[in-house]
Design brief:
The chain is mainly alpha-helical. It contains 6 helices and 2 strands. Helix 2 packs across helix 6 and helix 5 crosses helix 6. The longest helix is centred in the N-terminal third of the chain and has 16 residues.
Length: 134
């Protein structure tokens, strides 16, 4: 009986490790924490916000993500894991995910937390720019 219970628990654990969010490319995405969940971009697609976001992106993000956000910046070859292709990612996530990830970074990657370096307004402007990437 103990062997059956052990086998069921082990099988359940293996199945649950496959659960989670992913985008259409199968890339595993983390869940947005409650403090960021549901946040919406106050700028949306405002042209001035997009232009300001592009300036911040080109000065702060393009070294890793590349000027078009394809994850092919000059530093990308030295990074493991490689930077995300933001042109693809932006189509699969909501604004709250982008704001959260830019703000807090990602452990185990070279993505730093920009909160405290960039203002909240600048981060939202970068989100506006990322939404234009193709």
């Amino acid at each position: 009986m103990k062997k059956v219970i052990y086998a069921v628990l082990l099988l359940s654990a293996l199945i649950l490790t496959g659960c989670g969010s992913s985008n259409e490319n199968g890339t595993q995405l983390d869940s947005v924490p409650a403090e960021y969940s549901g946040k919406t971009n106050p700028f949306g697609a405002d042209a001035e916000a997009v232009a300001a976001g592009k300036d911040v992106f080109l000065s702060s993000c393009q070294t890793c993500h590349g000027p078009q956000g394809h994850g092919d910046g000059p530093a990308s070859g030295a990074l493991n894991p490689a930077p995300k292709n933001l042109a693809e990612l932006q189509a699969a996530v909501e604004d709250d995910y982008l704001f959260w990830r830019i703000s807090t970074g990602k452990d185990g990657t070279s993505m730093i937390a920009w909160e405290g370096i960039l203002t909240e307004e600048q981060i939202w402007q970068v989100v506006s720019f990322i939404r234009t990437l193709k």
